[in-house]
């Protein structure tokens, strides 16, 4: 006498490939076919009396169950509403709200600086220019640019602290 697992392994070996091809032709979906074959064999395992029938009766039972599972899927509301696609959805982007708000805070604080101090900070931090380049642009010595940068950063820090920004 063979056990239920041995019978199921024998049924799987004898019928799963044909059952898979049948479901793929019926449904036109490889993933669904794999799911249906797995569910069909699970149902056969749940009903061991089916596995003890003659081979032709077992095969007919398996194909009937698989056909019914495919038809149930095709009639379901899920199938009617869901569509598969080969393209991936848009990537989710990080929330940039805080960065925008921080930018507004800094822009407002920059407006409080004198034009000379603002020109040095903007040129160095946003323009990426060196002290020598800023000195040449503004027609002042490099030491003046460094001094303006020092006092501009101090004033900027105070302006941000007034707005509640802490270090």
What does this structure look like?
- It holds the Pfam family Sigma70_r4.
- Belongs to the sigma-70 factor family. ECF subfamily.
- It comes from Xylanimonas oleitrophica.
- With about 170 residues, the chain is mainly α.
- The chain folds into two domains: about 5-80, Rna Polymerase Sigma Factor, Chain: A; about 95-160, Winged helix-like DNA-binding domain superfamily/Winged helix DNA-binding domain (Arc Repressor Mutant, subunit A, Orthogonal Bundle), CATH 1.10.10.10.
- About 75% of the residues lie in helices and about 0% in strands.
- The protein is built from nine helices and no strands.
- The chain has helices at about 5-25, 30-45, 50, 55-75, 75-80, 95-110, 115-125, 130-140, 140-160.
- The longest helix has 24 residues, at about 5-25.
- It starts with a helix and ends in a 5-residue tail after the last helix.
Primary descriptors:
167 residues; 2 domains; 76% helix; Arc Repressor Mutant, subunit A; Rna Polymerase Sigma Factor, Chain: A
Task: List the SSEs and their pairings.
Layout: H1 4-27, H2 30-46, H3 48-51, H4 55-75, H5 77-81, H6 97-111, H7 115-126, H8 131-138, H9 142-162
Helix pairs in contact: 1-2, 1-4, 2-4, 7-9, 8-9
Organism: Xylanimonas oleitrophica
Family: Belongs to the sigma-70 factor family. ECF subfamily.
GO molecular function: DNA binding; sigma factor activity
């Amino acid at each position: 006498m063979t056990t239920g697992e041995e019978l199921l392994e024998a049924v799987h070996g004898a019928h799963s490939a044909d059952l898979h091809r049948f479901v793929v032709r019926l449904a036109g979906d490889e993933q669904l076919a794999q799911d249906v074959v797995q569910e069909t064999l699970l149902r056969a395992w749940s009903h061991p009396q089916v596995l003890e029938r003659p081979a032709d009766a077992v095969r007919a039972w398996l194909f009937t169950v698989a056909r019914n599972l495919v038809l149930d899927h095709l009639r379901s509301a899920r199938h009617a509403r869901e569509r598969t696609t080969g393209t991936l959805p848009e990537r989710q982007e990080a929330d940039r709200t805080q960065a925008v708000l921080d930018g507004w805070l800094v822009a407002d604080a920059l407006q409080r600086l004198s034009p000379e101090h603002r020109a040095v900070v903007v040129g160095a931090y946003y323009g990426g220019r060196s002290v020598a380049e800023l000195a040449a642009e503004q027609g002042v010595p490099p030491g003046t640019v460094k001094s303006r940068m020092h006092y501009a950063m101090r004033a900027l820090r105070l302006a941000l602290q007034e707005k509640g920004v802490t270090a």
